[in-house]
Write a structure and sequence with these properties.
Elements lengths: L6 H8 L3 H9 L21 H15 L4 H14 L8 E5 L2 E6 L2 E4 L5 E5 L3 H28 L3
Antiparallel strand pairs: 1-2, 2-3, 3-4
Length: 151
C-alpha cells in the first residue's frame, strides 16, 4: 500500500483501538479520505489530515465530551469553519465546546448560538500605549497653555 496510513497504523498513532476507529469510519465520524473500505478484505487508507481529526475526536472524548456531542462539533466545523479544522482552537469547559475560529468564539453545541467576539489582548495593550502618549502630550500642552496665559 503506497500512500497514507492503514487502519491499524492510524489507530496506533492516534492511541485508540482498531474497533473505535472502525466504528468511527462506519458511522462517518472520521472516514478515511484516501481509500474507504469497500467490502471485506479491502483496506482503508487514512491521510495525515484524517489522523489529526481522529486525534481531535480522541481528545474531546478524553475530556469527557459525549460521542454524540463530538459528532455535533465535527458537523458544525465541517459546515462553518472558514479555515482548516486544525487551525482553529477548541475550548472545552465542562460539557460545552467553544470553537475559536479567527476572531470568533462559537458555542458549537448550542448550534452556533452565542457568538462572542475574541478580544485580542495585544490590541488592548497597543490602545492603552497610544492613549498614554496622547494624554501625556495633552496634559503637557495644557500646562504650557496655562503658563503662557500667566495662570
Amino acid at each position: 500500500m503506497g500512500e497514507g496510513f492503514s487502519g491499524t497504523k492510524a489507530a496506533q498513532i492516534v492511541g485508540i483501538s482498531y474497533r473505535q476507529l472502525d466504528y468511527w469510519a462506519r458511522t462517518n465520524l472520521v472516514a478515511p479520505t484516501l481509500s474507504p473500505a469497500s467490502g471485506s478484505g479491502s483496506r482503508r487508507a487514512y491521510s495525515y489530515g484524517d489522523l489529526l481529526e481522529l486525534k481531535v475526536v480522541k481528545n474531546l472524548l478524553d475530556a469527557g465530551i459525549k460521542l454524540e456531542s463530538v459528532r455535533e462539533v465535527f458537523r458544525y466545523m465541517r459546515e462553518h469553519l472558514r479555515s482548516d479544522v486544525v487551525s482553529a482552537h477548541i475550548v472545552i469547559s465542562g460539557s460545552s465546546v467553544v470553537l475559536c475560529d479567527g476572531d470568533e468564539l462559537i458555542d458549537v453545541l448550542r448550534n452556533g448560538q452565542g457568538v462572542l467576539n475574541v478580544l485580542p489582548l495585544a490590541g488592548v495593550k497597543d490602545d492603552v500605549d497610544a492613549s498614554i502618549v496622547t494624554v501625556g502630550h495633552r496634559v503637557q500642552a495644557d500646562a504650557e497653555q496655562r503658563r503662557a496665559a500667566g495662570m
